[in-house]
Amino acid sequence: MKIATYNVNGVNGRLPVLLRWLAERQPDVVVLQELKAPQEKFPEVAIRDAGYDAIWHGQKSWNGVAMLSRVGAIHETRRGLPGDPDATQSRYIEAAVNGVLIGGLYLPNGNPRPGPKFEYKLAWFERLIEHAAGLLDSKLPVMLAGDFNVMPTDLDVYKPERWLDDALFAPEVRAAFARLIAQGWTDALRALHPDETIYTFWDYFRNAFARNAGLRIDHLLLSPALAKRLRAADVDRDVRSWEKTSDHAPVWIELADDAKPSRRRKA
């Protein structure tokens, strides 16, 4: 099963790009972020015509998350994290699909730092960590996937010295991500590409994509039960070069049906 995460940066404005990618790469399950569309404006018909069922949690102009599947029904279990005092921000959706429980998330950016937006990011991260611990305790095959808005290490950011004051690279944020991983999650992309420079986001400015001045901020985290099934993980980097595309590229993994596959890297 191929599962992907993709920050589309506007699901309606980038719909041709999304549909092209779905047709060419045919992921089985996709979590989307930054829909930037209210609930009633999600392009459900176009998505279904492409062969995917969908659930979504929209918000006018900002945020918004969704989950698509072409391998069976999507059984929604939650939208929004427990204890979130600001239910107006659509940042989390959770569902069971084809035997896997998936939490799709769009973690707050947090800039400027310091300030209320940064404090909200840290508080949101704490709620995610608490909820994630419960998911692991369930012993189910679980995945957290989405735009985490954090570069975990220096390897995940072009010229890290330029990002020291940014909320995506702040020590508190990286420490929170490390605490999340320490619960027992596997960072799928790093598990199979431990020493490679891999980015998932390139700004529209300063010719960032051509210079490969990127960030790795989109992650797929696997519970122990799923980590045993990990076969491949990569970034569809070329999608970032398409016309009118998002500033993110899709990130995907392949899971074996059995629990003891031989791991391989994608060439």
List the helices and strands and how they pair.
Elements (H helix, E strand, L loop, with lengths): L1 E6 L7 H11 L3 E5 L10 H6 L3 E5 L7 E5 L4 E6 L12 E6 L2 E7 L9 H22 L4 E6 L23 H12 L3 E2 H5 L8 E2 L5 H4 L2 E2 L2 E5 L1 H4 L2 E6 L15 E5 L12
Parallel strand pairs: 1-2, 7-8
Antiparallel strand pairs: 1-14, 2-4, 3-4, 5-6, 6-7, 8-12, 9-12, 10-11, 13-14
Helix pairs in contact: 3-4
Walk me through this protein's architecture.
- There is one protein chain.
- The chain is of the alpha+beta class and 267 residues long.
- The chain has one domain (2-255): Deoxyribonuclease I, Chain A, CATH 3.60.10.10.
- It is built from seven helices and 14 strands.
- Strands 3-4-2-1-14-13 form a six-stranded mixed sheet. A six-stranded mixed sheet has the order 5-6-7-8-12-9.
- Helix 1 links the parallel strand 1 and strand 2 (29-33).
- Helix 3 packs parallel to helix 4.
- The longest helix has 22 residues, at 116-137.
- Keywords: Hydrolase, Magnesium, Manganese, Metal-binding.
- The active site is at residues 106, 147, 248.
- This is Exodeoxyribonuclease III.
Give a quick summary of the entry:
With 267 residues, the protein is of the alpha+beta class. It has helices at residues 15-25, 44-49, 116-137, 171-182, 188-192, 208-211, 224-227, and strands at 2-7, 29-33, 53-57, 65-69, 74-79, 92-97, 100-106, 142-147, 186-187, 201-202, 214-215, 218-222, 230-235, 251-255.
